[in-house]
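PROTEIN–LIGAND DATA SHEET

This sheet pairs a single protein chain with one bound small molecule, zinc ion, given as SMILES. Inputs appear in the order they were entered. The predicted three-dimensional arrangement of chain and ligand is reported afterwards as a token string under its own label.
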Amino acid sequence: MGNVVLKQEMACRGPLILVTPEYPLRVRPGREQMQAPLRETPEILLAKEAKEALCALLAETGGEAEITGVSGFRTREEQEKIWEDSIRENGPAFTKKFVALPGHSEHETGLAIDLAKRQPGIDFICPEFPRDGSFGVFRDKLPRYGFIERYLEGKENITGIGAEPWHFRYVGFPHSAIIAERGMVLEEYIEFLKEGASLRKPYRYGGIAVFYVPLCGETEKAVCLPDAPCSVSGTNEGGFVITVWEDLP
Ligand SMILES: [Zn+2]
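PREDICTION REPORTED AS:
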């Protein structure tokens, strides 16, 4: 791929961006960039990459027979309304645990979706998504399609969000697989790459090399990438994750 200039504005875009209580979403995608992954709920939208991956995952695991969508892409205004309605109906403690602050929600990226078991009376904030049967099969296959279960039990102190077994986030392969195999949350994965995966000494997963490039407060940074297919994602916390498919011709 040769010399690539990584620019500041790219650092807050891409499937690996951290959108958390600490890091607000800086570049807002528009609704027109979103697509509907589910046949029965055309109002639920995702970014194209995430939509295609979810469609492929559902096609392999029984489709929409038992699984239904609850919430996908939200504008900042929609997130504000959900936040305010929940404060009114559920109180601040519950809301802070399960609803992200407007401007800090992964749903505003178009990379996250809440899914539920198909049944009457689905809870909008905390839908049920079991771990057994076809739901377990779906969960097992998530990493291969670039998705992770984003808010894990026991990691609440890192994510700042309560465990949400219904919230799935697209990060792309092989990141999803590395995160799942290591039992990490996205915050830990970015830290893991930052600490131990550089251009000189990448982390290797099969024939794929992954490394972190810090922007170090500069407006741009030139890196020389290997002559192989590469992808670049910002992390929204000051750097980039580069993925190189070394084994591909
Ligand atoms: Zn969610």
